[in-house]
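User: Second chain of the day. Same drill as before.
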Amino acid sequence: MFLIALDGLWIMDSYDYIDMYPRRAYFLLILGLGMMFISHWIIQHERKGAVHTKNESSHEEADKTAAQRFVNRMWEQRETVGGKLLLSVLVILGIMAIVDLGMALRILQPVLFVGMIVTSFIYIMNDEGEKVKEEELEPESHTMRVILRLIDYRRHPFSLGLLIFLIIVVTVLLSKELGFTFSLETGGHPRYTMSLPVAAFLLSGLTMACGWIYIRQHCDFFGLRQAEQGPYKLFHIHFFEIVLCGASFFIWLFVLVIELFLNGL
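Assistant: Same format as last time:
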């Protein structure tokens, strides 16, 4: 997933400066998707073959690891720590901008990307200890229950954000192959709510958050023990999906239709 995000963002950023994308741009996307499918299959296969002994391991699960205590502390002090980090980054970027404005602007996006990844990681890995019965929150409609299971990222890592991110990136890739030139509006003020590169950037962060919640649900990760995830974090992700995925999809669709019309198709 991380590989897909990095490759996709590079594709979006280099659109105005490259005549034809190298084959490795396609290869990395396919490789990233393949690794996601393989990882998902391995995790599901191991879960089906595992013998769960919850009673025997309940005492161990009650003991939080040092990594878990660190994550919990970071989340509790997020305003203080986040404010200090933000101030430090702004000071460093300000000094860099005085020396080389172009370099500061080039570094800004990677810094924001890392910030999104770290923030979503701390939020998802934070152990809130929520105990909610899933049955109490299930809708009565069978159709809605099916839809909610399909977008339950505790079951699988393939999210709506990832789907739209891939649609945008693949469209950009194919535009070079077919000889179209999209106006991605990387500079100035976009005519839409946001530009496609900005949409792709935000979708990459949303995709990583979905990946974190799947990893937390199924695996031990960097000293953080696997833990069943409640519905609230998932609902927060769905809230951002409604806003971000909807806006990104319609901007992509409008850009595609306008460009095809201008090219006489």
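DSSP finds eleven helices and no strands in the chain.

User: Great, on to the next one.
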